[in-house]
Design brief:
single chain; alpha/beta; globular
């Protein structure tokens, strides 16, 4: 699987960095630069994906201000937002809540006396991604409406910026004509970038199981697109019928977000 399309050294040096290197949001990164439809690349410094923004340092905040990001779209659930709120001057927040289900599923299994294994954790993660497709389409539809309403820079995020955010990013890149290899490579960048906060976990869950849910695997995102195909036949039909992003909207998004 390729990670990016090859650029010559001079071109590579002229490109912005994908990761912003923020201390309080290590998974904050740019979706720009990927090769999309008609040989055009996704514009830089317009579309950002991230983990939770509540731990930004003053230097991080200055960096985001410098990017002219004025809108954030937050996929965290109600309790996640309440436990870790943020207020950033000049940044308008939009809540698109998708409640987390994996930890609850693990707790239910433990309470039932079942042994939780990495294999079970993978299955739970895949079920979560299928849930994105089948039960949370309106949240992703709202993000696309925001993309269509204005092309001002925005960031969309959840807690870790890997699952809810990862599926949203995959849908956006698909609309822009980015290859499946590059979509998957962008998704898997979480494993290199995301640094979990040092917070204790009051759980009896084995560490090898926690590692599964703290990271991303190709099988997770694949499960989402398999659910798309099973229910709608293909991704473009899902975008049109479930998210309201038909051919005209896709053309408009490509005009806005491809260089």
């Amino acid at each position: 699987m390729s990670t990016t399309h090859t650029l010559n050294p001079a071109a590579a040096q002229s490109q912005p960095t994908r990761s912003l290197g923020l201390l309080g949001a290590t998974n904050f990164r740019d979706l720009g630069g990927y090769l999309g439809a008609d040989g055009r690349r996704v514009v830089w410094r317009r579309l950002f994906r991230s983990d939770n923004l509540a731990r930004l340092t003053p230097q991080d905040y200055e960096a985001i201000q410098g990017l002219r990001v004025q809108r954030s779209f937050d996929f965290r659930g109600q309790h996640e937002r309440a436990a870790s709120p943020y207020e950033l001057l000049g940044l308008t927040q939009h809540s698109l809540p998708i409640e987390p289900t994996v930890v609850q599923g693990l707790q239910e299994l433990v309470a039932a006396g079942e042994q939780v294994t990495p294999v079970i954790a993978v299955s739970l993660m895949q079920d979560t991604y299928r849930g994105f497709v089948n039960h949370n389409a309106e949240r992703f539809a709202a993000l696309f409406q925001a993309l269509l309403s204005s092309d001002d820079p925005l960031v969309f995020h959840c807690t870790a910026g890997k699952d809810r955010t990862g599926f949203a990013a995959a849908l956006i890149l698909h609309v822009l004509g980015v290859s499946q290899d590059d979509i998957m490579a962008d998704y898997l960048l979480t494993n290199a970038l995301y640094q979990r906060p040092d917070t204790p976990h009051a759980t009896n869950t084995p560490i090898e199981v926690l590692r599964v849910i703290w990271q991303v695997q190709p099988d997770f995102l694949t499960a989402a697109f398999e659910a798309v195909d099973a229910g709608w036949g293909n991704t473009d039909t899902y975008l049109r019928d479930a998210l309201g992003v038909g051919a005209d909207a896709q053309r408009e998004l490509r005009a806005r977000y491809l260089a």
